[in-house]
Each structure stands twice: as structure tokens, then as C-alpha cells.
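Proteins fold. Shown next:

***
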Amino acid sequence: MSLEGSYKLLIHSAKQIVQVVKNGERVVVGKALNNVAVLEKEENSSGLSIVVSSDGLINDIGTDEEIHEKYKAAQFENKINATGKCILPGMDFCN
């Protein structure tokens, strides 16, 4: 199934994505910050991708191949090549 529509941003080819939460938690605080969720690029993959919706929220995260197949009919306002980079979406440390 290919998703159509317009999206704000596609970040692709990342080496690593720090998701922070693992099971849908809204925040991670205290000692839980020692075990944040991290996705690593697999050897047989060209990288990891993030799709950001028009309202600025993360719509999807997956391998480049999964995201390309799922969103091949979609339009993106911006595309960022993050080859070899680590992405920390939504990382916000407040005191």
C-alpha cells in the first residue's frame, strides 16, 4: 500500500535514530534516560528515514526501503539527506 498526500519533511539515509521512548510513553525522565530507544542502520539497508506530517508531527519511522515503498506516491516539501548522521527528533531537555 502506497500512501499519497503531502508531507512537510522526509529525512532519509540516517545511520541512527534516537527515539527516546519505546512503548508510546509521552516523556522519559530520571533514570529512564539511561535506556532510551535507539534504532541503528542495518548492514543491508541504505539507512533510516523519518516522515514528518504537514502539522509537524512525526508520522512514520523506518528503514529507507520501507519508507520509500510506503510513501512512493507522496510529495514532500523538503527532503534532507542525513547520510551517516544520528537524528534526535523531539529531543527537549527542560530544567
